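re: ur question from earlier - yeah i can do the single chain one, its not a big deal. heres the input i used so u can compare w yours
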Amino acid sequence: MLDRLEELLDVGAADAVSKALLRATTRLRSILLHADDSSGVIGAAGERAVQLSARACREGTPNRVGLARWLVGFRRDSPGWPHVELAMFVDAFDERALAEYRRSVAKWSADLADADHYARYEVQAALVELADHDGDVDRAIVLLSGGVEHIPYGSVIDRVLAAGRDAEALDWLDRAVAARRISTLQRNDYWILPNRAVELYSAAGRAGDALNVLQAAFVQRVGPPTWRALLDFAARLNRDEELREWAIAAAEELAGRPHGSGSDLINVYLSESRLEEAWQAAKRFGAGRRRCGRVALCRVQVFAGGAELGQGRAPPD
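and the output i got, formated as tokens:
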């Protein structure tokens, strides 16, 4: 059905298919609430339906005020999917429709004034989108950071940088570091990737802070990527040997803790073809129970054995 509606949309029949696509968007969400969607097929269809629906509204001549009311109503009942936001539909609004959307969002927010952060998540997103639409960076930052348990540091920093407020972005980055929101493991707006933090600190001439971020990232997740990032940056400071020793000591300390293992350290050594050091780490700390540790130990044995026969070669990446 979506294929057929899209074909009609492609030949200019936006008004003919817009109601059907809005219906499909609503109905697919209703089905998904009561279905096993382990394969993700229904959810993907819902996302596609809402994208096509927004396109039909933008290209056609919908009841604009009615569309604004529908969008707020759809978001108020949202379980979080399919993803919808103002930017998808705003080009279909006129001034009256946008005013109605603002009024409806304000009422929605007032109705949830005493609710917790989680219950207000969607309406807060709608309010931030309105601030972004208006170009009101300060309003967006207040909404993103005021009175919330978890601040989306990435979103805040992106907005102040886009506004040319670099010093303020560094202030927010310092707050993220203090709140321990720099992580190699998380990839959403509530966390900052180490390379992003290093980029910002380096541009501001704060190499020491950039190095601290890389050291913390290495301790958080010992492995070839964090090892290489740390040593590459250390080389720029002419401190590569010093920080290589620090990193090995840190990795050995972590490996020696209860429930620790040498698997991460082994993989670091193997990334540089340092077979003897990898083998010694395996003997001292074990290769661990994780599959990667066992594979690492096997690689050490295979390549070390080959080396004894004069057939050794560097292990593959």
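Residues 276 and 309 are 15 Å apart (CA to CA). not sure if urs matches, ping me
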